[in-house]
């Protein structure tokens, strides 16, 4: 049965190149994980191209029934570690792959529409991102063709200004 909820991660760099990966919820493990599939969108792109990119990723989210057979977190790590999403796409560990990237998370709920959620780097947890729900934008399904891409671009600009290039200041010890 297809999930009522769909989740997508869209990573981006300072030049606006997007790397999207759908999310799969592993029921037996109670874990959201990036799926193997990734897709890139490189600038320049218009609102229609961006909208279609997001909709394709949302449609794929949660559809890998083979992944859903995983019985434990240990089994998941043995079968999939380094083989999914951004790690596979960048051919690096997750921390290394996301070091110079920012992230926007998109949630779709059938009947409720989309929520576009910016994130902030969590420098206390290496490679982690925290959701910034205070700046999330909700979009009704019927409004998505006109409003989803502009909302994404607005939050992409917000993340770039507030997070993407900021790193903790490293000082040399005397």
Which helices and strands appear, and what pairs or packs with what?
Elements: E1 5-12, E2 18-26, E3 31-34, E4 39-41, H1 47-60, H2 73-80, H3 85-90, H4 94-97, E5 102-109, E6 113-122, E7 128-131, E8 137-139, H5 144-164
Helix pairs in contact: 1-5
Features:
174 residues, alpha+beta, NMB0488-like fold, eight-stranded antiparallel beta sheet, 8 strands, disordered C terminus
Number of domains: 1
Backbone shape: globular
What structural class do you assign from the helix and strand content? Answer: alpha+beta
Stated plainly, the CATH topology is called NMB0488-like fold
Question: What proportion strand?
Answer: 25-35%
Describe the protein.
The protein is globular. The protein has helices at 47-60, 73-80, 85-90, 94-97, 144-164; strands at 5-12, 18-26, 31-34, 39-41, 102-109, 113-122, 128-131, 137-139. Strands 1, 2, 3, 4, 5, 6, 7 and 8 form an 8-stranded antiparallel beta sheet that branches. The chain has 174 residues and is of the alpha+beta class. It has 5 helices and 8 strands; from the N terminus they run E-E-E-E-H-H-H-H-E-E-E-E-H. A hairpin with a 5-residue loop joins strand 6 and strand 7 (128-131).
């Amino acid at each position: 049965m297809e999930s009522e909820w769909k989740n997508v991660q869209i990573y981006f760099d300072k030049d606006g190149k997007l790397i999207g990966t759908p999310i799969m919820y592993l029921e037996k493990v109670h874990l959201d994980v990036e799926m193997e599939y990734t897709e890139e969108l490189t600038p320049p792109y218009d609102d229609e191209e961006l909208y279609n990119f997001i909709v394709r990723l949302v449609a794929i989210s949660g559809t890998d029934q083979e992944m859903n057979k995983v019985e434990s977190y240990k089994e998941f790590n043995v079968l999939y570690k380094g083989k999914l999403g951004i790690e596979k796409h960048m051919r690096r560990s997750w921390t290394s792959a996301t070091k110079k990237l920012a992230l926007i998370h998109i949630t779709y709920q059938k009947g409720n529409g989309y929520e576009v959620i910016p994130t902030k780097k969590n420098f206390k947890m290496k490679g982690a991102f925290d959701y910034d729900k205070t700046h999330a934008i909700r979009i009704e399904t019927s409004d998505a063709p006109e409003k989803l891409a502009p909302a994404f671009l607005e939050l992409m600009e917000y993340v770039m200004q507030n997070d993407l290039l900021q790193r903790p200041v490293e000082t040399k010890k005397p």
